Amino acid sequence: MEIKVACQYGKWTSILTAITAIVALGTAVTMAPARSGPYCPPLVKMGVIKSCISYPYTDVADFVPVDYIWMYPALLLSLLFVVLVASVYHCDPIHKSISTHIALMLSVISAAIHSINYFIQLAVVQPSLLKGELESLILLSEYNPHGVFIALESLGYFMMGLSFGFLSLRFVRSGKLIKSIKYTYLVNSVITVAGLIIMAFWYRSDLEYRYEVLSLTLNWVVLIITGIPLFFYFKRIYQHNEQ
């Protein structure tokens, strides 16, 4: 019974996760342009924004709440990812392994980091900007390319990338469907982990949000493109356990 419930959770969570990732990526790209940091000057040249925001990154009340809307689906997405990994863990007991348990723990860590990070932005930074309470917001501002927000984002998506790597070891069944999920997760994990090492070495103190953008985009795209394959993966196991 538990297996069937887990597979049902997995089926619909995989689709809901993909949809949420599409919404999050769409709102982030269209409603929250890079107003500071290394990607800002090209946007100014293209006419996307008028100018870049500089230190202390507090003259941004005009961008509230539009620049923060993407965080709502991003927060939901981080929680859905935990449910998705938990569903994979419980749905196929024959191939249950320590690697999947590690993936689940890493997904919980990732979700915890993102939940705290996004909630601080939505419940602390936004109202403080609107009320002119600007003290101590410099390090918390999402516009600070080397602030707390970017650091936690980078850590959270690094953990998600690691989780994908361990989760890929779960998909040992044969078939193109299983292999497509397995290698998509594995490649994403390798790029996410190696990306931090390479970019941190290359840019050093100028890393800013370069890795955050890379890891966030990779993880969200993977959740989008594996949504349908995962739906059929859970459906197949559910039908197998009904026989």
Low-confidence stretches: none
**Pattern of helices and strands:** HHHHHHHH
Which oligomerization state do the chains in this entry correspond to? single chain
Query: Which structural class do you get from the secondary structure elements?
Result: mainly alpha
The shape, in one word, is elongated
For the biggest sheet, the summary is: none
Please report the distance between the alpha carbons of the first and last residues: 13 Å
Total strands: the figure is 0
| Overall tally of structural domains | 1
* Mean pLDDT level: 93
Binned strand content? under 5%
Percent helix range: over 70%
Task: Tally the helices.
Answer: 8
Whole-angstrom Rg: 19 Å
Task: Tell me what you see in this structure.
The radius of gyration is 19 Å and the shape is elongated. The chain has one domain. Helix 3 runs antiparallel to helix 4 (98-130). Helix content is 71%, strand content 0%. It starts with a helix and ends with a helix. It has helices at 2-31, 40-46, 71-91, 98-130, 148-168, 176-203, 210-225, 227-242. The mean pLDDT is 93. The chain is mainly alpha-helical and 243 residues long.
Q: Could you write a compact summary of the structure shown?
A:
By secondary structure, the chain is mainly α. It is 71% helix and 0% strand. It starts with a helix and ends with a helix.
